[in-house]
Automatic annotation (TrEMBL):
This is Carboxypeptidase. GO terms for molecular function: penicillin binding; peptidoglycan glycosyltransferase activity; serine-type D-Ala-D-Ala carboxypeptidase activity. It comes from Polymorphospora rubra. Signal peptide: none annotated. GO terms for cellular component: outer membrane-bounded periplasmic space. Pfam families: Transgly, Transpeptidase. Residues 50-233 form the Glycosyl transferase family domain. Residues 338-647 form the Penicillin-binding protein transpeptidase domain. Keywords: Carboxypeptidase, Cell shape, Cell wall biogenesis/degradation, Glycosyltransferase, Hydrolase, Multifunctional enzyme, Peptidoglycan synthesis, Protease, Transferase.
Amino acid sequence: MSAVAYPLVAIGGLGAKAGAEIIQNMPRELRTVPPAQTTYVYANDGKTLLTMFYEEHRRYTPISQMSPHIQQAIVASEDSRFYEHNGVDAKGIARAFVANQQSGAVSQGASTLTMQYVRMALRDSAQSPVEVQAATEQTSGRKIREMRLATELEKQISKTEILERYLNSAYFGHRAYGIYAASEVFFSKLPKDLTIIEAATLAGLVKAPSEYDPASRDKGAATARRNYVIDRMTSIGYISPDAAAQAKEEPITLKLTTPPNDCASIAKAQNSWGFFCDYFKNWWGAQPAFGGNPLEREDKLRRGGYTIVTSLDPKVQEIAEDNVSGRESVDSRFAHGIVLVEPGTGNVKAMAVNRVYSLDQSENGSHSDPKKRARIKGNYPNTVNPLLGGGDMPGYQAGSTFKMFTMLAALDAGKPLSTAYNSPYRMRSIYPGDGGPSSCGGYWCPSNASAAMTGRHAMWSGFGQSVNTYFVQLEQEVGADKVVRMAERLGLRWRTEVDRNQASPEKAKGWGAFTLGVSDATPLEMANAYATVAGDGLYCEPMPVLSVLGPDGAQAKFTNAEGEQVDVAQPRCRQEVSKDVARAAADAARCPVADRPAAGSCGGWSTADSVRGTVGRPVAGKTGTTDSTRSAWFVGFTPELAAASFIADPDNPFNAVGDWQSNKPIDSVATTLREALKGQPTRDFVPPSSAIIR
């Protein structure tokens, strides 16, 4: 019976020493631990909601932004003497003690609003299951602890602040914690707009959210509880008897909202945003600003109450989505995707792929790898795999788009654009062969895609026509290890054991095939690397955010390598190659797209000659295909925007896409750049200096 019997004298007797210690620590326990709050994630306009992240859906709301009706309804239903007691209601305790002794059970609780808040605060600040149990268990010891803390709390803060905290902590059902979430979930409105009827309905829920759920089929219990609250409001004098009678005649009218939670619950109309959202989550999980490990960082995301404005541009995203899904069905085994990055900031503007972002793979097609087909389904049309980058997938071989790294390494080493070689159809390199068809006499002997490429080439025509034997010779002069390091400087990372081994200091000097794009890369990496060229050699880490505000409205910060406090959303840029080197590389990169370089000759033809006419403004880029066209790529850029598109089979990299599909990435990039930049002023590339042209 001790669990239900708690006479007032216990406050001054039982556990006095422990109570004194609790009171001494009270400000720390109840004043410094904020309740969990929902994180809101928006598109780059700061208004279009992508999704939310929460364990407990809650948004802290000042009492000044709450309807007076909800304040009155809570007081009336839970603690009518709230403004008269000092945290513990002596009359209520005595009344409850008698009632509980007579019934032999807990028929009345006598917990004031202040005591209830104390219990919620202790629960929310608990660091272990044991602490949670101590905060919520039905014992006289817990009740006495609440009484002591409630009494002390009322000496520290005002009744208004206690009521505000209570209304932001209480659970109303349907994963709605606090009055902001409850108003949104049940009535799709803000707390300041709640009517008497709505306020009474919500106030009635905190006693037993499931029992009085107004969203259930039978609203009888919810209506009876609401009417009880209205009667209590009348007896206290908050509303008149006539207003109460009229309110009780009205039915409970709900306007339910289910707030999204995590990437998989993004609205169907914006389903493609899920892939960007997933990239954002992976980025967040790698930021030390939000915790010491990925679990701590995810907890911050779900409980920290951040307001995040991402770099996602809904207009550009829609254009990108149309240009990949329109060229390759979501039901295709082949993934066709595109990523767009802003030069000079690294802001990721769009990520689209011909897939449905969904965890449900029950109706997916068969796996394209014969060894896996009997065991698992393919990842189409539904998947949440990070096909575009930002996760742990290695990516896809990017073919001749890697020649950009060789050209940059050569220019960075002092070789001019005019560097020329006689480039035969096939050549013997200085690199060791692997015994395959490209080996001859123990050496690696690469060949060109066509005999028409044979002849003398400088960087313009070598890049424009994608002459393998030209770039192998250029790589030999600058050193394959320098080319590998250049790719790393521009953001590429090695995710397979083979690539890590080949890129190691011991092996990189002999990795001759690197210039032909035999390593895996992601569209995000390639778009960002080419954005460095478009941005005059300024490398910026790819970024999914424009701002990250904490619940206090301050920008989230981290300590950089120099020990400075920096906004976590601030672009992280460094001058990786000189402006002149980047401008020279951009000049040569105008040749593949049939644009006109500032100097030099493109050789009369190019590998993507439709791009300049489609984009309709100065543009540069590079095509890339792998052996047997297992994947096809195009990376294009203007001074304002860089885009990388690919087509490949993520489930089975050996499943060739076919030559006939190699134009799809070219067309996707060209059309997306044109539409995304429509209406913007036309900018030209800055020509390189004569010193680097020579």
